[in-house]
Design a protein that fits this description.
461 residues, Porin, 3 domains, 8-stranded antiparallel barrel, 8-stranded antiparallel beta barrel, 25 strands, globular
Length: 461
């Protein structure tokens, strides 16, 4: 099995970086194998151009009929790299992969590419201090964030992993990030999971590029190519690498909202899966500001800025009690709790109301390969300056690990109690309930998370 991975790291200290990581199978026999978690790295420049990194990844996941056990993954690694310029570097390394509650043991050589950039993150949600950017030259970088639904229509006779044809439409719900590159080129990152079609456990992660042709003031067309890792849920993707070709029409609904309708073709590079794709997406168009020394950069006055408030929450979630049966596809198994690692990203529209995107992956409980993606909305109310209560209503897709989620559609309400630490950090304990619309999963939930709040400046349109 060959894995392709990606990390998003923040330099907390000149020699220490911390962030998120995801890995997916792209060749071999384990298409649909995914893990997600947290990465930390110690960075040591040896010369002006050569550096040494020592890092550690911990997360959860599995799939692709791999012997991942409960799903807990450790990946320590050592890397040497060469700086090719101010922002780009290339390196080689050595990593060790272990699944302590499974049977995966592997040592291997690795290669990596790094791209560095600068961005503003203002701790907390105290946006009255907008003067901190006055006198700094800034460049705008246009971005899109979209919620989307993909409908895949497999070719007639396309076999699944069990050899039987995939005759029904597959629905995959997910999100896409798109950032403007040079000229009319965009860079894409996309992820999603099965929502319907009897293929619960199917997941995908794509990266790619698209080129835009403006047609009218509010209408444009795009062509794009994405490559990525995908599989699971009886979808025969071979080693896991997929390619997708798209043609899209974009209509501006306002200065910041767009509707995207996209048609394309998706194929497994070394598997049997072939399908036509139709995608509908609602996208939010915004600018991020970055420091720049270019002559084209400009200085933004305080009244030209708007601030977006965010919160990151990371922690653990447990399916603590099953209301009906054991929540598994195999009804003969004991009702063992399922433990998951999670990351939640909240965007605050007001001081109290927020929208949330959440990703979870099992690391214990005999459910390795079980993964969840959720979107929804929540309300946070202060009881005292330090203590708050919250409520959330989430919907999403889940699958894998032998959990009985039916077609994959789930709903999850939550109630929480939190404690703020200096208006930036918080700790939160929540309880809730998960229900699978077409499966036997009905379980009580306990959740523990650590949160970090921050603001990001945007240029007003």
């Amino acid at each position: 099995m060959g894995l392709l991975g990606g990390n998003y790291l923040v330099s907390i200290h000149p020699n220490f970086r911390f962030g998120l990581g995801v890995y997916g199978a792209v060749y071999g026999e384990r298409g649909g194998f995914f893990t997600g978690g947290f990465e930390s790295t110690l960075h040591f420049p040896l010369t002006e151009h050569i550096y040494f990194d020592s890092g550690f990844f911990v997360g959860g996941g599995g799939g692709g009929a791999a012997p991942q056990g409960g799903g807990l993954m450790f990946r320590p690694h050592l890397d040497f790299g060469l700086n090719l310029g101010k922002y780009l570097s290339l390196g080689i390394g050595y990593s060790i992969v272990r699944f302590p509650n499974g049977k995966i043991r592997s040592d291997q050589a690795t290669i990596h590419v790094q791209r560095s950039f600068s961005a503003f993150i203002y701790p907390g949600m105290q946006r009255q201090s907008v003067g901190i950017l006055e006198g700094i030259n800034l460049n705008r970088h246009r971005r899109l964030f979209a919620l989307q639904i993909n409908a895949y229509f497999p070719d007639r006779g396309t076999p699944g992993r069990d050899g039987l044809p995939l005759d029904s439409r597959m629905d995959v719900v997910g999100v896409r990030w798109r950032e403007a590159m040079s000229g009319r080129w965009w860079g894409d990152f996309e992820t999603g999971g099965a929502w319907g079609g009897g293929v619960d456990g199917f997941a995908q992660v794509f990266i790619g590029s698209a080129y835009e042709w403006p047609l009218l003031k509010t209408v444009s067309f795009l062509t794009g190519l994405q490559l990525g890792a995908a599989g699971g849920g009886d979808v025969h993707t071979g080693g896991g690498m997929l390619a997708r070709f798209n043609l899209a029409g974009v209509t501006a609904l306002s200065s910041q909202w767009q509707f995207i309708l996209e048609a394309g073709r998706i194929v497994a590079v070394d598997g049997e899966f072939r399908a036509w794709a139709l995608t509908g997406a609602l996208a939010y168009d915004y600018d991020v500001l970055r420091p720049s020394n270019n002559k084209s950069a400009k200085n933004f006055e305080a009244n030209q800025l708007q601030w977006a408030d965010f919160r990151l929450r990371a922690g653990m979630q447990r399916y603590a009690r099953y209301w009906y049966g054991n929540g598994r596809k195999d009804s003969g198994l004991a009702p063992v709790p399922v433990d998951q690692v999670h990351l939640k990203i909240d965007a605050f529209a007001t001081e109290s109301w927020f929208v949330s995107g959440q990703a979870l992956a099992a690391y214990d409980g005999g459910a390795g390969g079980y993964a969840v993606g959720l979107v929804g909305s929540g309300l946070r109310l202060s009881l005292t300056p330090a203590i708050y209560t919250s409520a959330e209503l989430l919907v999403g897709a889940a699958g894998g690990g032998g959990i009985a989620v039916g077609g994959g559609m789930i709903v999850q309400p939550m109630l929480g109690l939190g404690y703020r630490i200096k208006q930036t950090w918080s700790v939160e304990l929540s309880a809730g309930y998960i229900h699978a619309y077409s499966g036997a999963l009905d379980a009580a939930i306990m959740d523990l998370a650590i949160g970090y709040e921050f603001s990001v400046p945007h240029g007003k349109k």
